[in-house]
Design goal:
five-stranded antiparallel β-sheet; single chain
Length: 178
Amino acid sequence: MKLVYKEVPVEFLAALPEGIKYVQKQGKDFLVIEQLYCRDGHSLMADHVRLHGEPSICLDAGIGSQRGRVFVDAFWGSHDKLYSFIPTDTDLHSIIEAHCPHCGISLMAPRECTYEGCGSRQAIVLNLPGGVNKIMVCAKHGCPDHELVIQKIPEEITRRVRKINYFGEFHDDIFRGI
């Protein structure tokens, strides 16, 4: 898959929600998730496991028959992950069951994925600070769909941010070396 860099909309940067920061790496603009919570207020950030130099997002997850921790890259649009288990080929397109690693509360919610060919009806809900804004991630393992639900930013702007995906099934790591 060829990498196509997608610029972060200036309108989004002007109203950057709490819990998301703007960084520049190798002359390019990126968004990095810096704070996320379960609905009971426990932090989902793991400072002890860093991906591309930033704390990762930690989830307890079940994928098919496998269970354990998943550490997700905090760079918006990256789909890099570290697993405490090895997903099998049969788990490749399973629905991920995600829970808070601190209290065990489910992070799942009903949501129809709009990504072409996905068909998932589940999402993982991650709350930004304040509990009003959130990130919704398709729960189908391997689907790149994710969206920001931000109260004070027009949907047309968040839709443009939603389309920022750097990696796919066969990706080049543009973050290598940073």
